[in-house]
Each structure stands twice: as structure tokens, then as C-alpha cells.
Amino acid sequence: MNSLRLNVSPYSSFMHETKVDLGNGIELHVEMGGEIGNPTILLVMGLGAQLLYWPDFFCKSLIDQGFRVIRFDNRDIGLSSKVRHQGERLNTLKLMGRFALGLENQGAPYNLYDMADDVALLIDKLELEQVDVIGASMGGMIAQILAARYPDKVRKLALLFTSNNQPFLPPPFPKQLFSLVGKPASNDEEGIINHSLKLFKVIGSPGYLNEMEAVQTARKLYQRSYHPAGVLQQFLAILCTGSLRSLDKQIQHPTLVVHGSRDRLLPPAHGKAVAKAIPDAKFELIEGMGHDIPPHFIPYLSELFAHHFKL
């Protein structure tokens, strides 16, 4: 940890950024804030989502409640290493069909087990004994694998709008799914920003989107990094990982599963399935929340997680 060069984040004055070489060919871009020595919360984000998808207000709320907070770009996204794939092109629709039925898929450049290994290596490189983990969406899937396969690195687990991908769960609503995997109308900056805005509207909490803020966020994300190939490869990683249900049964950590009642990308049945599979997990449904973390819900969410970790 001492050898890391920390610079003030250009996005948040209370966060410092650095690059961490994991030693497996991957370098992760990391931001951290809060007092060294405070209990650490590691935030793991979802599909195609840069670390800035963890809102500053959310991170600051946790820091103010006495935690050290670490967020990072997963491999293939943001300012972390990109993975070049030389193999054959995979048929995504065919993989999705097999995935829904619980059949095994192969051929992705990497899977969620590899991404969980990245997180385990990051914990080692930052010389952290044990961390509390909050995983959102795909990040929640990674967090489930991390807790099951590296139990000594995790103290407590919190999962936000995620799934264990067991067969026959209700699929994403078509509009939400296609907005996530669809292509923008044009590839210039405005086309990408309009596409992002549409995505925020479709998967987010109905009635809680501030359009001006959403446009600013989309622009900031686009200017920081735009790498659609990485989003596709992360999607393939999910499809080639399959069900985590048997892993969930191995998780012994105190676990809180939180889901929004208005999530149409991963309907609440996904969160309930996770909570049912993990021994003694608690499930909390938040009325009116979709597949995002809007400011309106942050005070409640951050208090919920802080309370879980302090118990």
C-alpha cells in the first residue's frame, strides 16, 4: 500500500485515485476515500459501469458514517486494463437462450470467476485484511463468487439489485434488456450521450431522474472512457458463468440483499432468489426503486448498509 502513488481524484475532492497492478496482466483503476484505519467497504460495480456509477453522495454518506470506501473500474471498462479477444465471435442470442435454461456456455474471453479473482488480488495488493463488500448488479454476482471462494477476505456482504442467475428466473423486460445491449443511433459524442440518457430512463427508478444531471453524468462517463467492446465482453462473462446458486449455499457471511420494487432489468424475484440461497441472508425490498442509485434513495440505502456492517 505504501508504494502506491495516490492523486486527488479529478471527480471527487474527498477521493484519491491510483492504479493497482494485480500481477495477472490486469491493472485496475482505483479510487479511495475516508480515514485509513477505518473499516473498509469495497464497492463492486455492474455491467459496463465505471466506478463513477457509485454516486459521490453515496460514497460520502458511507465515509461520514465512519468507513473507508474503495471503488474501482472492473477489467475492460473505464480506466482499467482492456482485454483483447482473438477468439471466434460468439452468438449472444444463442448464449442467452441457453443461460436462461441453466445450460452451460463457454468461449468468452473471461468469466465472472476471473473478475472475482481480480477483486481478491486487489484486496491483497491494497494489504487489506478483510473488507465489507457491496456488489451491485453484475458486481453483486462477482461479490457472491468472492465471498464463496475467498471467505477469509470478506467480513460482511451486501448485495444490491443483483441475481444468482439460477435457471427460470423471470427474464429482464425486453425494453430494459435491449436498451442495455442495444447500439446508439450514432457514434459521435451526442449520439452516445442520448443513448446513455435513454438507458438511465429505462432502467432507473421511475420519477426520480433529473435529466440535466443525467446528461452531465453521461458526458463525464463518455469523456472519461468509452469502450463498448468491454461492455459486450462483460455481458459474455455473465452468460458463460451461469448459475451461482450452489456457491450461494457456501456463503457463511452475514448478508443483506437489497432490491428495488420497480427494477425491470432484474425483477425483484432475482434478489429474493439470492437471499433464499444464502444461509440466513436478510432481504429488503425498496418501494419505488429501479436498477439505479438515485439521490432520493441514498440516505436510506447508505444507512441500511452502514447499519448492516456495524451490527
TrEMBL record:
Record domain AB hydrolase-1: where: 39-293
Top-rank taxon, per record: Bacteria
Name the record gives this protein: AB hydrolase-1 domain-containing protein
GO MF term (any one): triacylglycerol lipase activity
Gene3D superfamilies: alpha/beta hydrolase
Pfam families xrefs: Abhydrolase_1
SUPFAM superfamilies: alpha/beta-Hydrolases (SSF53474)
GO biological process: glycerolipid catabolic process
